[in-house]
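Issue 218. Parser rejects a valid record. Input:
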Amino acid sequence: MARVVKVFRTLRNNWKKSTFAVCVLSYGGYWLNGKHNDSLLRREACLLAREFGRQQIAPHERLRKATVILNPAACGGKANNLFEKNAAPILHLAGVEVTIVKTDYEGQAKKLMELAEQTDMLIVAGGDGTLQEVVTGLLRRPDQDTICHTPIGFIPLGTRNSLSPSLHLLSDNKVKDITSATLSILKGETVPLDVLQIKGETEQPVFALMGLRWGAFRDVAAKISKYWYLGPLKTNAAHWLSTLHEWPQVREVSVSYLDPNLRPPDLPPQKTQRPSLLYRIFLRLKHRWSPPVVEPPKVEEPEEWKEEQLSTLELFVQTHNKNPVQRRINDSMMIYAEPDNLTVGEYITVGNKKDEDPTVFTKESTKLEASACRLQLPEGTAGFYNIDNEEYEAMPVEISLLPRKLRFFISAERREQLLAQMQ
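Output the parser choked on:
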Protein backbone atom coordinates (compact mmCIF):
# COMPACT_ATOMS: atom_id res chain seq x y z
CA MET A 1 0.00 0.00 0.00
CA ALA A 2 2.85 2.35 0.79
CA ARG A 3 4.30 1.72 -2.64
CA VAL A 4 1.00 2.67 -4.34
CA VAL A 5 0.80 5.85 -2.28
CA LYS A 6 4.37 6.67 -3.28
CA VAL A 7 3.54 6.23 -6.97
CA PHE A 8 0.51 8.52 -6.77
CA ARG A 9 2.54 11.12 -4.84
CA THR A 10 5.21 11.04 -7.54
CA LEU A 11 2.60 11.47 -10.28
CA ARG A 12 1.04 14.39 -8.41
CA ASN A 13 4.38 16.12 -7.85
CA ASN A 14 5.30 15.68 -11.55
CA TRP A 15 1.88 16.22 -13.07
CA LYS A 16 3.18 17.95 -16.22
CA LYS A 17 5.45 15.05 -17.13
CA SER A 18 2.75 12.58 -16.18
CA THR A 19 0.17 14.30 -18.41
CA PHE A 20 2.62 14.40 -21.33
CA ALA A 21 3.47 10.71 -20.87
CA VAL A 22 -0.22 9.74 -20.80
CA CYS A 23 -0.87 11.70 -24.02
CA VAL A 24 2.10 10.09 -25.79
CA LEU A 25 1.15 6.59 -24.66
CA SER A 26 -2.49 7.10 -25.62
CA TYR A 27 -1.60 8.34 -29.09
CA GLY A 28 0.93 5.54 -29.52
CA GLY A 29 -1.65 2.95 -28.53
CA TYR A 30 -4.23 4.44 -30.89
CA TRP A 31 -1.67 4.47 -33.75
CA LEU A 32 -0.61 0.85 -33.14
CA ASN A 33 -4.23 -0.27 -32.94
CA GLY A 34 -4.93 1.41 -36.30
CA LYS A 35 -1.94 -0.31 -37.89
CA HIS A 36 -3.08 -3.66 -36.50
CA ASN A 37 -6.62 -3.17 -37.85
CA ASP A 38 -5.19 -2.23 -41.27
CA SER A 39 -3.15 -5.45 -41.29
CA LEU A 40 -6.27 -7.47 -40.50
CA LEU A 41 -8.14 -5.80 -43.37
CA ARG A 42 -5.30 -6.58 -45.80
CA ARG A 43 -5.14 -10.19 -44.61
CA GLU A 44 -8.89 -10.68 -45.01
CA ALA A 45 -8.84 -9.16 -48.52
CA CYS A 46 -5.87 -11.32 -49.54
CA LEU A 47 -7.64 -14.48 -48.35
CA LEU A 48 -10.65 -13.59 -50.50
CA ALA A 49 -8.40 -12.83 -53.48
CA ARG A 50 -6.62 -16.18 -53.08
CA GLU A 51 -9.94 -17.95 -53.69
CA PHE A 52 -10.14 -16.27 -57.10
CA GLY A 53 -6.56 -17.34 -57.83
CA ARG A 54 -7.32 -20.96 -57.01
CA GLN A 55 -10.06 -21.23 -59.61
CA GLN A 56 -9.04 -23.61 -62.39
CA ILE A 57 -8.95 -22.49 -66.00
CA ALA A 58 -9.00 -24.57 -69.18
CA PRO A 59 -5.68 -25.34 -70.93
CA HIS A 60 -6.54 -23.07 -73.86
CA GLU A 61 -7.56 -20.15 -71.63
CA ARG A 62 -5.15 -17.41 -70.62
CA LEU A 63 -4.85 -15.29 -67.52
CA ARG A 64 -6.87 -12.10 -67.36
CA LYS A 65 -4.82 -9.05 -68.24
CA ALA A 66 -5.20 -5.75 -66.41
CA THR A 67 -3.58 -2.44 -67.27
CA VAL A 68 -3.22 -0.14 -64.24
CA ILE A 69 -2.82 3.61 -64.77
CA LEU A 70 -1.23 4.75 -61.49
CA ASN A 71 -0.66 8.37 -60.51
CA PRO A 72 2.11 8.31 -57.85
CA ALA A 73 1.57 12.02 -57.08
CA ALA A 74 -2.01 11.46 -55.90
CA CYS A 75 -2.87 11.76 -52.20
CA GLY A 76 0.13 14.01 -51.54
CA GLY A 77 2.61 11.56 -53.08
CA LYS A 78 1.38 8.56 -51.05
CA ALA A 79 -0.53 6.85 -53.87
CA ASN A 80 2.29 4.55 -54.98
CA ASN A 81 2.83 3.21 -51.45
CA LEU A 82 -0.93 2.82 -50.89
CA PHE A 83 -1.32 0.86 -54.12
CA GLU A 84 1.67 -1.43 -53.53
CA LYS A 85 0.58 -2.29 -49.98
CA ASN A 86 -3.19 -2.56 -50.39
CA ALA A 87 -4.17 -3.24 -54.02
CA ALA A 88 -1.26 -4.90 -55.85
CA PRO A 89 -1.09 -8.03 -53.60
CA ILE A 90 -4.82 -8.65 -54.10
CA LEU A 91 -4.53 -8.50 -57.90
CA HIS A 92 -1.48 -10.82 -57.94
CA LEU A 93 -3.07 -13.37 -55.60
CA ALA A 94 -6.17 -13.46 -57.81
CA GLY A 95 -4.05 -14.56 -60.76
CA VAL A 96 -4.39 -11.36 -62.76
CA GLU A 97 -1.56 -10.48 -65.15
CA VAL A 98 -0.96 -6.87 -64.12
CA THR A 99 0.80 -4.19 -66.15
CA ILE A 100 1.40 -1.03 -64.13
CA VAL A 101 1.91 2.25 -65.99
CA LYS A 102 2.91 5.19 -63.79
CA THR A 103 2.35 8.77 -64.87
CA ASP A 104 5.14 11.31 -64.49
CA TYR A 105 3.36 14.59 -65.16
CA GLU A 106 -0.09 16.11 -65.49
CA GLY A 107 -1.82 15.22 -68.73
CA GLN A 108 0.33 12.17 -69.47
CA ALA A 109 -2.53 9.74 -68.83
CA LYS A 110 -4.37 11.17 -71.85
CA LYS A 111 -1.42 10.42 -74.13
CA LEU A 112 -0.92 6.97 -72.64
CA MET A 113 -4.55 6.02 -73.26
CA GLU A 114 -4.38 7.17 -76.87
CA LEU A 115 -1.56 4.62 -77.42
CA ALA A 116 -2.67 1.85 -75.04
CA GLU A 117 -3.16 -1.68 -76.32
CA GLN A 118 -6.29 -3.76 -75.87
CA THR A 119 -6.63 -5.33 -72.42
CA ASP A 120 -9.22 -7.35 -70.50
CA MET A 121 -9.73 -4.62 -67.90
CA LEU A 122 -8.48 -1.11 -67.26
CA ILE A 123 -7.80 0.02 -63.69
CA VAL A 124 -7.40 3.68 -62.74
CA ALA A 125 -5.51 4.15 -59.47
CA GLY A 126 -5.65 7.83 -58.52
CA GLY A 127 -8.15 10.61 -57.97
CA ASP A 128 -10.57 12.69 -60.01
CA GLY A 129 -7.84 14.19 -62.16
CA THR A 130 -6.34 10.83 -63.15
CA LEU A 131 -9.76 9.35 -63.92
CA GLN A 132 -10.79 12.31 -66.05
CA GLU A 133 -7.55 12.14 -68.05
CA VAL A 134 -7.96 8.41 -68.67
CA VAL A 135 -11.58 8.79 -69.81
CA THR A 136 -10.67 11.72 -72.07
CA GLY A 137 -7.75 9.85 -73.64
CA LEU A 138 -9.90 6.76 -74.10
CA LEU A 139 -12.71 8.58 -75.88
CA ARG A 140 -10.37 10.56 -78.15
CA ARG A 141 -9.12 7.35 -79.78
CA PRO A 142 -10.19 6.56 -83.36
CA ASP A 143 -11.26 3.07 -82.22
CA GLN A 144 -13.10 4.32 -79.14
CA ASP A 145 -16.30 2.49 -80.13
CA THR A 146 -14.45 -0.81 -79.74
CA ILE A 147 -12.20 -0.09 -76.77
CA CYS A 148 -15.06 1.44 -74.78
CA HIS A 149 -16.35 -2.08 -74.15
CA THR A 150 -13.34 -2.67 -71.87
CA PRO A 151 -14.57 -2.59 -68.24
CA ILE A 152 -12.92 0.03 -66.03
CA GLY A 153 -12.08 -0.25 -62.35
CA PHE A 154 -11.49 2.74 -60.10
CA ILE A 155 -9.26 2.48 -57.02
CA PRO A 156 -9.69 5.71 -54.98
CA LEU A 157 -6.19 6.95 -54.15
CA GLY A 158 -6.68 10.69 -54.65
CA THR A 159 -7.58 13.56 -52.38
CA ARG A 160 -10.91 13.83 -54.22
CA ASN A 161 -12.70 10.72 -55.49
CA SER A 162 -16.11 12.00 -56.64
CA LEU A 163 -17.10 8.81 -58.48
CA SER A 164 -16.19 6.44 -55.65
CA PRO A 165 -19.47 6.83 -53.66
CA SER A 166 -21.37 5.71 -56.77
CA LEU A 167 -19.37 2.48 -57.04
CA HIS A 168 -18.17 1.48 -53.56
CA LEU A 169 -19.22 1.47 -49.93
CA LEU A 170 -17.10 4.17 -48.30
CA SER A 171 -15.73 4.30 -44.77
CA ASP A 172 -13.35 6.43 -42.72
CA ASN A 173 -10.57 3.89 -43.33
CA LYS A 174 -8.46 4.43 -46.46
CA VAL A 175 -7.17 0.84 -46.45
CA LYS A 176 -10.70 -0.56 -46.34
CA ASP A 177 -11.81 1.66 -49.23
CA ILE A 178 -8.87 0.54 -51.40
CA THR A 179 -9.18 -3.18 -50.65
CA SER A 180 -12.96 -3.22 -51.16
CA ALA A 181 -12.62 -1.36 -54.47
CA THR A 182 -9.98 -3.86 -55.65
CA LEU A 183 -12.13 -6.84 -54.65
CA SER A 184 -15.11 -5.40 -56.55
CA ILE A 185 -12.94 -5.46 -59.69
CA LEU A 186 -12.22 -9.17 -59.18
CA LYS A 187 -15.91 -10.00 -58.69
CA GLY A 188 -16.63 -8.57 -62.12
CA GLU A 189 -20.00 -6.86 -61.59
CA THR A 190 -20.30 -3.77 -63.80
CA VAL A 191 -22.66 -0.86 -64.33
CA PRO A 192 -22.95 1.49 -67.36
CA LEU A 193 -22.15 5.17 -66.82
CA ASP A 194 -23.05 8.24 -68.87
CA VAL A 195 -20.33 10.54 -70.14
CA LEU A 196 -20.45 14.26 -70.95
CA GLN A 197 -18.55 15.45 -74.00
CA ILE A 198 -17.54 19.09 -73.47
CA LYS A 199 -16.20 20.89 -76.52
CA GLY A 200 -14.92 24.45 -76.70
CA GLU A 201 -14.53 26.58 -79.77
CA THR A 202 -10.97 25.56 -80.62
CA GLU A 203 -9.68 22.81 -78.30
CA GLN A 204 -10.22 19.07 -78.43
CA PRO A 205 -13.21 17.78 -76.45
CA VAL A 206 -12.90 16.96 -72.76
CA PHE A 207 -14.98 14.18 -71.21
CA ALA A 208 -16.52 14.09 -67.74
CA LEU A 209 -18.29 11.48 -65.64
CA MET A 210 -19.82 13.76 -62.99
CA GLY A 211 -20.33 17.20 -64.48
CA LEU A 212 -19.36 20.82 -65.09
CA ARG A 213 -19.57 23.44 -62.33
CA TRP A 214 -19.25 27.21 -62.72
CA GLY A 215 -20.02 30.09 -60.41
CA ALA A 216 -19.45 31.75 -57.06
CA PHE A 217 -19.60 28.62 -54.88
CA ARG A 218 -17.02 26.92 -57.10
CA ASP A 219 -14.68 29.92 -56.87
CA VAL A 220 -14.91 30.02 -53.07
CA ALA A 221 -14.39 26.24 -52.79
CA ALA A 222 -11.06 26.64 -54.59
CA LYS A 223 -9.88 29.12 -51.91
CA ILE A 224 -11.10 27.43 -48.70
CA SER A 225 -7.80 25.60 -48.14
CA LYS A 226 -6.01 28.99 -47.87
CA TYR A 227 -7.81 29.60 -44.57
CA TRP A 228 -6.63 26.35 -42.95
CA TYR A 229 -5.49 28.25 -39.85
CA LEU A 230 -9.13 29.04 -39.00
CA GLY A 231 -9.93 25.36 -38.44
CA PRO A 232 -13.67 24.54 -38.60
CA LEU A 233 -14.49 28.21 -39.33
CA LYS A 234 -12.54 28.29 -42.61
CA THR A 235 -15.56 27.49 -44.83
CA ASN A 236 -17.73 30.21 -43.27
CA ALA A 237 -14.84 32.67 -43.37
CA ALA A 238 -14.07 32.00 -47.04
CA HIS A 239 -17.67 32.62 -48.10
CA TRP A 240 -18.06 35.70 -45.91
CA LEU A 241 -14.80 37.27 -47.13
CA SER A 242 -15.82 36.62 -50.74
CA THR A 243 -18.96 38.72 -50.16
CA LEU A 244 -16.78 41.62 -48.98
CA HIS A 245 -14.82 41.45 -52.19
CA GLU A 246 -17.89 41.24 -54.47
CA TRP A 247 -21.61 41.12 -53.82
CA PRO A 248 -23.87 40.01 -55.35
CA GLN A 249 -21.74 37.42 -57.18
CA VAL A 250 -24.22 36.87 -59.99
CA ARG A 251 -23.26 35.15 -63.25
CA GLU A 252 -25.09 35.75 -66.52
CA VAL A 253 -25.29 32.86 -68.99
CA SER A 254 -27.33 31.91 -72.03
CA VAL A 255 -28.27 28.21 -72.07
CA SER A 256 -29.52 26.56 -75.26
CA TYR A 257 -30.63 22.96 -74.90
CA LEU A 258 -32.37 20.05 -76.59
CA ASP A 259 -35.12 18.03 -74.96
CA PRO A 260 -34.08 14.65 -73.52
CA ASN A 261 -34.35 11.48 -75.59
CA LEU A 262 -36.35 8.44 -74.57
CA ARG A 263 -34.13 5.73 -73.16
CA PRO A 264 -34.22 2.49 -75.19
CA PRO A 265 -34.85 -0.72 -73.27
CA ASP A 266 -31.80 -2.40 -71.75
CA LEU A 267 -31.50 -5.60 -73.78
CA PRO A 268 -28.69 -8.12 -73.29
CA PRO A 269 -26.21 -8.14 -76.19
CA GLN A 270 -27.10 -10.91 -78.65
CA LYS A 271 -24.60 -12.43 -81.00
CA THR A 272 -26.15 -12.82 -84.45
CA GLN A 273 -25.57 -16.18 -86.08
CA ARG A 274 -24.30 -16.31 -89.63
CA PRO A 275 -26.88 -17.76 -92.07
CA SER A 276 -26.16 -21.09 -93.72
CA LEU A 277 -24.29 -21.28 -97.03
CA LEU A 278 -27.35 -22.33 -99.07
CA TYR A 279 -29.40 -19.42 -97.67
CA ARG A 280 -26.64 -16.93 -98.52
CA ILE A 281 -26.44 -18.29 -102.10
CA PHE A 282 -30.21 -17.98 -102.42
CA LEU A 283 -30.12 -14.32 -101.23
CA ARG A 284 -27.40 -13.43 -103.72
CA LEU A 285 -29.29 -14.94 -106.62
CA LYS A 286 -32.50 -13.25 -105.52
CA HIS A 287 -30.84 -9.83 -105.31
CA ARG A 288 -29.26 -10.38 -108.73
CA TRP A 289 -32.51 -11.29 -110.49
CA SER A 290 -34.69 -8.78 -108.66
CA PRO A 291 -32.57 -6.03 -107.09
CA PRO A 292 -34.16 -4.46 -104.00
CA VAL A 293 -35.75 -1.04 -104.41
CA VAL A 294 -33.61 1.65 -102.81
CA GLU A 295 -35.76 4.05 -100.85
CA PRO A 296 -34.85 7.73 -100.90
CA PRO A 297 -33.20 8.94 -97.71
CA LYS A 298 -35.51 10.43 -95.14
CA VAL A 299 -35.21 14.14 -94.57
CA GLU A 300 -34.43 14.63 -90.89
CA GLU A 301 -36.27 17.39 -89.14
CA PRO A 302 -34.02 20.12 -87.73
CA GLU A 303 -33.41 19.88 -84.02
CA GLU A 304 -35.36 22.37 -81.95
CA TRP A 305 -33.05 24.21 -79.58
CA LYS A 306 -34.66 25.99 -76.66
CA GLU A 307 -32.96 28.97 -75.05
CA GLU A 308 -32.94 30.26 -71.47
CA GLN A 309 -31.30 33.44 -70.17
CA LEU A 310 -30.18 32.67 -66.63
CA SER A 311 -28.94 34.93 -63.85
CA THR A 312 -27.45 32.66 -61.21
CA LEU A 313 -24.92 32.30 -58.41
CA GLU A 314 -23.82 28.93 -59.77
CA LEU A 315 -24.51 26.70 -62.75
CA PHE A 316 -24.07 22.92 -62.55
CA VAL A 317 -24.44 20.52 -65.50
CA GLN A 318 -24.33 16.96 -64.22
CA THR A 319 -24.94 13.36 -65.22
CA HIS A 320 -27.09 10.81 -63.39
CA ASN A 321 -24.00 8.84 -62.35
CA LYS A 322 -24.55 9.66 -58.69
CA ASN A 323 -26.99 6.71 -58.72
CA PRO A 324 -26.03 4.67 -61.80
CA VAL A 325 -28.42 1.77 -61.05
CA GLN A 326 -31.55 3.94 -61.14
CA ARG A 327 -33.97 3.13 -63.95
CA ARG A 328 -34.75 6.27 -65.94
CA ILE A 329 -37.28 7.04 -68.66
CA ASN A 330 -35.00 9.48 -70.51
CA ASP A 331 -31.35 9.64 -71.46
CA SER A 332 -30.52 13.09 -70.17
CA MET A 333 -28.23 15.44 -68.29
CA MET A 334 -29.44 17.81 -65.59
CA ILE A 335 -28.83 21.58 -65.58
CA TYR A 336 -29.19 23.34 -62.22
CA ALA A 337 -28.98 27.12 -61.71
CA GLU A 338 -29.00 28.51 -58.18
CA PRO A 339 -31.15 31.63 -57.59
CA ASP A 340 -29.49 35.04 -57.68
CA ASN A 341 -31.46 36.55 -54.76
CA LEU A 342 -29.86 34.82 -51.77
CA THR A 343 -28.95 36.94 -48.78
CA VAL A 344 -25.41 36.86 -47.37
CA GLY A 345 -26.51 34.56 -44.56
CA GLU A 346 -28.25 32.17 -46.97
CA TYR A 347 -25.22 32.30 -49.24
CA ILE A 348 -22.91 31.18 -46.40
CA THR A 349 -25.33 28.44 -45.29
CA VAL A 350 -25.70 27.03 -48.82
CA GLY A 351 -21.94 27.30 -49.33
CA ASN A 352 -21.34 25.13 -46.24
CA LYS A 353 -23.63 22.44 -47.62
CA LYS A 354 -22.03 22.58 -51.05
CA ASP A 355 -18.57 22.22 -49.53
CA GLU A 356 -19.66 18.80 -48.23
CA ASP A 357 -21.63 17.84 -51.35
CA PRO A 358 -21.59 20.10 -54.46
CA THR A 359 -24.64 18.29 -55.86
CA VAL A 360 -26.94 19.70 -53.13
CA PHE A 361 -29.25 22.38 -54.54
CA THR A 362 -31.75 24.79 -53.05
CA LYS A 363 -35.48 24.37 -53.60
CA GLU A 364 -35.63 27.62 -55.60
CA SER A 365 -32.97 26.51 -58.11
CA THR A 366 -33.85 26.33 -61.81
CA LYS A 367 -33.88 22.77 -63.11
CA LEU A 368 -33.63 21.76 -66.78
CA GLU A 369 -33.40 18.29 -68.33
CA ALA A 370 -31.62 18.03 -71.67
CA SER A 371 -29.82 15.71 -74.05
CA ALA A 372 -27.37 18.44 -75.14
CA CYS A 373 -26.75 22.07 -74.23
CA ARG A 374 -24.68 25.08 -75.19
CA LEU A 375 -23.36 27.60 -72.69
CA GLN A 376 -22.82 31.08 -74.07
CA LEU A 377 -21.03 33.45 -71.67
CA PRO A 378 -21.02 37.25 -71.95
CA GLU A 379 -18.00 38.65 -73.75
CA GLY A 380 -15.09 39.29 -71.41
CA THR A 381 -16.23 36.77 -68.78
CA ALA A 382 -13.31 35.49 -66.71
CA GLY A 383 -13.13 32.55 -64.36
CA PHE A 384 -12.88 28.80 -64.45
CA TYR A 385 -15.03 25.73 -64.86
CA ASN A 386 -14.69 22.70 -62.63
CA ILE A 387 -14.95 19.62 -64.85
CA ASP A 388 -14.84 16.60 -62.54
CA ASN A 389 -13.00 18.82 -60.02
CA GLU A 390 -10.35 19.82 -62.56
CA GLU A 391 -10.00 23.51 -63.48
CA TYR A 392 -10.53 24.67 -67.07
CA GLU A 393 -10.77 28.21 -68.38
CA ALA A 394 -14.39 29.36 -68.72
CA MET A 395 -15.45 29.78 -72.34
CA PRO A 396 -18.50 29.07 -74.53
CA VAL A 397 -18.90 25.29 -74.74
CA GLU A 398 -21.22 22.68 -76.20
CA ILE A 399 -22.03 19.73 -73.95
CA SER A 400 -23.32 16.46 -75.39
CA LEU A 401 -24.49 13.37 -73.54
CA LEU A 402 -23.03 9.98 -74.40
CA PRO A 403 -25.48 7.66 -72.65
CA ARG A 404 -24.13 4.46 -71.07
CA LYS A 405 -20.82 4.95 -72.87
CA LEU A 406 -18.50 3.22 -70.38
CA ARG A 407 -18.83 0.28 -68.00
CA PHE A 408 -17.34 0.49 -64.51
CA PHE A 409 -16.90 -2.20 -61.87
CA ILE A 410 -19.29 -1.76 -58.93
CA SER A 411 -19.49 -3.60 -55.63
CA ALA A 412 -22.61 -5.74 -55.17
CA GLU A 413 -23.16 -4.25 -51.69
CA ARG A 414 -23.19 -0.70 -53.06
CA ARG A 415 -25.58 -1.68 -55.85
CA GLU A 416 -28.01 -3.15 -53.31
CA GLN A 417 -27.72 -0.05 -51.14
CA LEU A 418 -28.49 2.28 -54.06
CA LEU A 419 -31.48 0.15 -55.07
CA ALA A 420 -32.77 0.24 -51.48
CA GLN A 421 -32.54 4.06 -51.44
CA MET A 422 -34.85 4.24 -54.44
CA GLN A 423 -37.64 2.27 -52.74
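Fixed in the parser; the record now loads. The CA atoms of residues 39 and 292 lie 70 Å apart.
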